[in-house]
Amino acid sequence: MSTGQEPVFPEYETDTSQTSKLLRKFKETPFVPIGMAGFAMVVGYGLYRLKHRGEMKMSLHLIHMRVAAQGFVVGAITCGVLYSMFREHLMKPKEERKTD
């Protein structure tokens, strides 16, 4: 992109670093990184338990791990949606609620 052109999406093309963008996103939606970390923990635990599964079939073990990982992510998304609804609708000042 040359210096003479206007940016297509100026709100996305600021001069901030990638780390500051990532931290800002984590502050806006805190349950996304929690869901990602939980998913990684469930996958790590599943890989650890893979050696000690005993007589359980491989396919059954993988199905259980997939369900656990998806359940954690869906739970984190649900908590994030509820948190954002709480923040937007219940934490508003009373003046803003009256004008809606």
UniProtKB/TrEMBL annotation:
Q: Which sequence ranges form a coiled-coil region, renumbered to this chain?
A: none
- The keyword rRNA-binding appears for this protein: no
Superkingdom is Eukaryota
Q: Where in the cell is it found?
A: Mitochondrion membrane
The biological process GO terms on file are: mitochondrial respirasome assembly; negative regulation of apoptotic process
Kindly state one GO CC term assigned in the UniProt record: mitochondrial membrane
Classify the main location. Answer: mitochondrion
Pfam families from the xrefs? Answer: HIG_1_N
Domain (HIG1) spans 3-95
Keywords, A to Z? Membrane, Transmembrane, Transmembrane helix
Report TM segments: 30-48, 68-86
What name goes with this protein? HIG1 hypoxia inducible domain family, member 1A
Q: Which organism is it from?
A: Columba livia
